[in-house]
Amino acid sequence: MSLRSHARVLIRNAGLNLLTQIWLILVFLFTTPVVVHRLGDAAYGVLSLTLVVLGFFVFLNLGLNHAVVKFVSDHLARGEAKDVRRVASTCLIVNLVLGVIGAALIAALAPLFVSGLFNIPEPLQETGRRAFYLLAISFPFVLVQNTLQGIAGALQRFGLVSIVQGAAGALQGILPAGLLLLGFGLIEVVLAHMLVRILSCVAYALLLVRILPEFRAAPSWHGATFRKLMGFSSWLIVSGMVWPILMSSDRVLIGMLLSAEAVTFYAVPFGIASRLLIFSASMAPVLFPAFSERVATLNIAAVRSLLLKSAGMLFCVLAPIVLLLIILSNPILSIWMGEAYGREGSAVLQILAASMLPNALAAIPIAALLGLGRTDIIAKIQILELPVYVALGAILIPRMGIAGAATAWLVRTCMDMILMYGAVWRLVGAPGSAATEARAG
Length: 441
Fold this sequence. Notes:
Layout: H1 3-39, H2 41-56, H3 64-77, H4 81-117, H5 122-154, H6 158-181, H7 186-211, H8 223-257, H9 260-274, H10 278-296, H11 300-327, H12 329-337, H13 339-371, H14 375-400, H15 402-428, H16 434-440
Helix pairs in contact: 1-2, 1-6, 1-10, 2-5, 2-8, 2-9, 3-4, 3-5, 3-8, 3-10, 4-5, 4-8, 5-7, 6-7, 8-9, 8-14, 8-15, 9-13, 10-11, 10-13, 11-13, 12-13, 13-15, 14-15
């Protein structure tokens, strides 16, 4: 494929992802006020905490979601169809087993989460336990779905991925809002989340069977393939354990040190600010297989060019939007969610909006490092960040409230961006470097 054709494919795939993310933002904007106000601040905080815990346990996938994208992309670039199926089949079996283990762990720890770890009001504790039990049932489907989505992405079938993501995301917003308008409560909302996760998993499976007829056969185990995947994923296992802690420590610490209501007043502005990541979320799944293909053919100059152009484009698009959100934070929250959220959350939204620029930009070098096979660097940087971030949050939250959590997040994202770019540039920044070629190979 020519460079021009490669560029067209990348732009098309990123565009499809972006359209999906914009659609999900619209759903979020219309449904979140209904869900928050109908549930109440405390119950919405409980819902947020259950989803945070579910996301944390995704570390059990052992980094295999990235491994499946890496090796399926590599084998496709070399025309090795049999190896593509072996990689996909082995990953599916492993994630199904790990999903069952994770579900059992979440269910077993549910009483501890509700009555010990989080500051949940006593009238909501029994409902909170039931919510954790229900989400535990969906956990195996979450891990399997992530694997199936990674395979579809490696096959460059982002149109199909966008359809499933768009439908699932819409249902996750519209179903809870509809149930609450009909008079149902938190348990029914959690049931809706569980149902959507199961349906999306089934949808990806059916689509992959249609794309690749050989997937109609039952998954089979390949020991050599598993060892190869684990060789790539060894550091991703560490990263997979650290990353969910980095992503959820702010809300967990608020739930421990403040209250479930405070989680809601933080989660709402965080939900707005995190929508700024739609651009990096659209680009990263496309860039990872693109970097992998270029590394597989030893085209390091193309890796370097793609890194710089992607980062520059992302900065130019995102920086003005971040500035606008910082300026308009108070009126946005007040009009959208009410005066209380404008009063309590505007400073938090300003800090979080500023943090999303380095957060988004860091996705580009992370995709490059994954494509280069240097998962060890990603994990080491995240291990370095973790104690700094948690300690900073533990110090600032009691003193500054939810604004302290946002400040700790800003410091972490800046640190992450600087270290990730510095690491990847050492690998690809020197044209013709023998060390660069050796490391990339």
